[in-house]
Amino acid sequence: MSSVPVKPGLRLSVSEWLSSNQQLSAAAGHERRVSNGIRQEGRPAGDESDTSRRLSDRLWDVARWKDALEACARKVDEEMEALTLSRLSTALAATAIPLEVSTECVTLREGRRGSELVLDPVDEQLKKEVQLIGRVQQVLQQHVDKAFEQLCVLQEVRHQLTSDLQNKMDALDIDMSCLSLTIKSPEISLKTNPTRIPSGSSTPQEWGQFSQYNVLQAQEAMQVSQHMREDTSLTRAQLQNELAVQWRATEFVLRKRTHDEEQARDQLQWQIRNTEDEMIEMEDDIKGLDLDLQAKTTNLKLAHTRLENRTSRTGMDLCRDEVPKPVQHGLVNEVHQLKATITALDQKLSEAQRSLQKMKLHHARMLEDLSRKQEALSLEQRSLNTRSHLRSASCSGRSPVLLVPLTNSSGRSHLQLLAQ
């Protein structure tokens, strides 16, 4: 039987064989890394292709932030324009005319005289109207001041964005110029200490945080501005509603008062006409009484003369002749009756004259009062005419448009962007 030939020497196990392979692989990797390190150290510092790649990466990072800053700056500009055109100053300026109208109505009605100078509901509503407009102006001015301050904040963040953006654009220009340089570029040269770290240099982390902070500050300012515009819009609508309600209330009582005064004037004119008719009739009666009095006086003179003449009879003819024909007695009775009639007529005439005089005095007072009423009505009508454009604006549903720059209570206005 033949035997299997065996190769003399030490034999390895499978695990030892695997370990040997791993050691060889590890040693090969180590030698390659050492070799690569030696080769890299042997290369000239600042390999141009590697630097160009890094410059390209840097340019992409700067361009990305530049685009973000530009987009944010545009939004800030839009918000500043929206806040400027939020109609705050227009609404505030629009209250000047209603205040002037209300004040003029108060002044006009102060021109009433005598019994027409009445503390009526119109006075009360006009005073409320003036006070309300004053409060509206105060509230709107407060909002204008806040909007002006917020515009200053937006302007400041816009300035920060603009400054940062300008720096990014300058950095892009410089890095793009560096990227375009080659070993053949005529402007390249050796520089003194080019590897120095310039004063004020930032770390990459600080660089990114700075732009991010500027954007966040701008977004926060825009959010505040948007909330302010919403609040301002709501406040303006509420104030306009209050003014509209007050204007209608004042309009109602003014028209009602005018109607009452017209009725009082018409009633007074009717009284004056009737009084004048009565005065004419009374004057005619007085003339009749006077004529009757004159006639009765003449008759009395006749009776007196007859009685006096009959006293001249002599002797037995100086007779009282009472019967059968009582001439003397009749004359005496006639005298007594005429005297009584004359006394009554005279009394009646005096009463009529006094009554006529009283009517004339009262007629004069009524004429004076009518004059005051007509003046008061004229003032009320002028007040209604003065308020006519308020009614026109109310019917059209819009306020007069006045282009007024946003100005705070100190008078500052005309905001300018520090950089566009």
From TrEMBL:
GO cellular component, alphabetical, reads: axoneme; microtubule cytoskeleton; nucleus
Q: Name one GO biological process term.
A: cilium movement involved in cell motility
According to the UniProt entry, the coiled-coil residues are 258-292, 335-387
Where is this chain's protein located in or outside the cell? Cytoplasm, Cytoskeleton, Cilium axoneme
UniProt cross-references to Pfam families, sorted A to Z: Tektin
Q: Where is the composition biased (Basic and acidic residues)?
A: 29-53
Q: Which UniProt keywords apply?
A: Cell projection, Cilium, Coiled coil, Cytoplasm, Flagellum
Ranges for the region named Disordered are 26-53
Q: What family, per the record?
A: Belongs to the tektin family.
Record-linked PANTHER family: TEKTIN
Protein name as catalogued: Tektin
